[in-house]
Amino acid sequence: MPKRNLRIVKRVRNVPVRGICEFCNAEFSGDPNMGNAQSAIQEQFNAHRCKRVETSESAAGVGTKASKE
Q1: Is 27 a member of any domain?
Q2: What is the pLDDT of residue 22?
Q3: Considering the domain boundaries, does residue 38 fall inside one?
């Protein structure tokens, strides 16, 4: 299982306000006016549990054999 990483995707006045988990695409946000936006985002990321989203190919059954020949 690949290691999950937090990526900051939006900043306001050079303060991180939105981040995502690169493994499951969960989003985390913080309020730049509170002064602890970065730590709030990091805490949310640390507390979450990844739920891997299936790719469209595997969800559609592409590459699997439906019946035996």
Answers
A1: yes
A2: 95
A3: yes
17: helix, coil or strand? strand
Q: Is 47 exposed, middle or buried (0-12, 13-18, 19+ CB in 10 A)?
A: exposed
Q: Kindly report, residue by residue over 23-61, the tens digit of the pLDDT.
A: 999 999 999 998 899 999 999 999 999 986 665 544 444
- pTM of the predicted model, to two decimals? 0.69
Structure token digits, residue 63: 């590459």
Q: Is residue 36 part of a domain?
A: yes
Q: How would you classify residue 35: left for phi > 0, otherwise alpha for psi between -120 and 50, otherwise beta?
A: left
Q: Which run of H or E residues covers position 40?
A: helix 37-47
Total number of domains constituting the chain: 1
